[in-house]
Amino acid sequence: MYIRKRLFGAVIMGFGLWFLLDSQSFIAILQDSSLTLKASSYVLIGAGAFAMFMGFVGCLGAIYEIRCLLGLYFTCLLLLLLAQVVAGALIYFQKDVVSDVTSS
Question: What sections of the chain are H helices per DSSP?
Fold first, then answer.
């Protein structure tokens, strides 16, 4: 499980780096140079790096049976779950703002 998290984190971070460094191909597809594309690439890079780090912490804690690392892993996963619930609620309650941003 921990290996998959690091692998998926690397894939997400790779997509973010690809969006950021090879932006000409995506600008040609989207027909405009967008600040949203650049911001989303930074979000992907950050999310991928965090997923890789959390996979490493969980793997290290499980292999060497370090309770502190396993507690850190559990705490970060719990905070990530809470952040996803809050983000989903914000998107749900701010539908008109989200639709305005995505349509422009």
Answer: 2-21, 23-30, 35-64, 67-93, 95-103
Contacts of 66 by beta carbon, 8 Å cutoff, 6+ apart: 60
pTM of the model: 0.70
How deeply is 68 buried, as exposed, middle or buried, from its count of CB atoms within 10 A (0-12, 13-18, 19+)? exposed
Q: Between 35-64 and 67-93, two packed helices, what is the crossing angle to 10 degrees?
A: 150
User: CA-to-CA distance for 100 and 76, rounded, in angstroms?
Assistant: 32
CA dist 21 to 25, 30, 34, 35, Å?
Answer: 10, 16, 14, 14
CA distance 99 to 1: 36
Express each pLDDT in 9-27 by its tens digit. 888 888 888 877 876 776 5
